[in-house]
Amino acid sequence: MMNPNPALARTLEDSADKLAETACELFLESLQGESAPAGRAIGSNVHQEWTHHFKQRVLELSAALAAGEQRLFTERVSWSRRAMRARQQESTTIHESLHSLRKALSVELDEDMLSEAISCIDMAIDEDNNRLPEEQVSRLEPGIPNQRLALMYLQTALEGNTRQAMEIVLDAVDGGLAHAEAITDVLLPAQAEIGHLWHIDHITVAEEHLVTSTTHRLMAVIADRAPHAQDRGITAVTASISGNVHDTGIRAISYLLEMQGWRTIYLGGDVPRNDLPAAVHFFDADVVLLSTALSSQLSKLRDSILAIREVCEKDVRIMVGGNAFWDAPQAWKAIGADGYTGDATSAINLAEALSGSQTRH
Fold first, then answer.
1. Per residue in 233-255, is it b (16+ CB within 10 Å) or e — as a string?
2. Which CATH number goes with the domain that contains 15?
3. Where are the alpha helices (DSSP H) in the chain?
4. Are strands 263-266 and 287-291 parallel, antiparallel or unpaired?
5. Is residue 179 part of a domain?
6. What are phi and psi of 339, to 5 degrees?
7. Same domain, residue pair 210 and 149
8. What pTM was estimated for this model as a whole?
9. Residue 91: pLDDT band with limits 50, 70, 90
10. 139: pLDDT confidence band, cut at 50, 70 and 90?
């Protein structure tokens, strides 16, 4: 772990387009004469695709520096490398791209600003040189009842039998499986599994969308049938921030809070920063839950938190979560949040703690 460097992080964020363009030019020049051109590894529109790739890398690097967490950068590089290898693409291009990004920083930034950014890139290069074995195909264990149920649900949904898939889980609920447990121990692990299967190229985007839409329908049915505690007079506003269209986790947490007697204002995915404070103020929220998927979105999350605090007179508590924090669970401290959790059950417990667990009328 390194010390946060918000000034350098902001410089990288502000210079992301220029750095990406320079890195792309250096990268494509380095591949001239290579037997495996970059276009085959990432797409037909070579320059546009790689410029976008480098911009994401710069934003990930910025997030790592802002939080003082190198792994926010290095783990995203590892994720990209595994995804490319799973698709029989030349993952060595990731290695070359890191060197090109390193050179671009030297070209575009003052030398006295470089050391921490270069250190992050060098760490990613070192890890690329010491690759770990590939991950197992499935992360679900059929010997565990709820995970076996998740596998049955996934298999049936992927066959296109979505109503039957829903009935498999609903029958288990009718047979005694707790409603909240069906969400936390069956549907959310199933959703994580479907993301993993896409990452290793075992399913398509269309198949992932099929399962996700089915999961959203099923969660709504389960939540509607679940017993709900008496209204406790506590309000939570929940949302995925601007740029984050992934909302399964925050949707699940919203349902779980409702079961516990909260009033939950679920705003959905990709909520603009400037719209959040008005919603928090209008609904008189006690706790705000914000989700983000990528480390490159952490600056938007920080700005969203600042916007809420600047506008809302009430001392609202703000907690955060999402995949962006998996590799650096302490990063929430650098963006002004009041807490972070990595799973739905812990999120409910933290929300209770932040609200003071008091019934309000």
1. ebbbbbbbbbbbebbbbbbbbbb
2. 1.10.490.20
3. 6-14, 16-30, 38-42, 46-67, 71-86, 92-108, 115-129, 145-158, 162-174, 179-181, 188-199, 205-225, 248-259, 276-282, 298-311, 344-355
4. unpaired
5. yes
6. 175, 165
7. yes
8. 0.83
9. low
10. confident
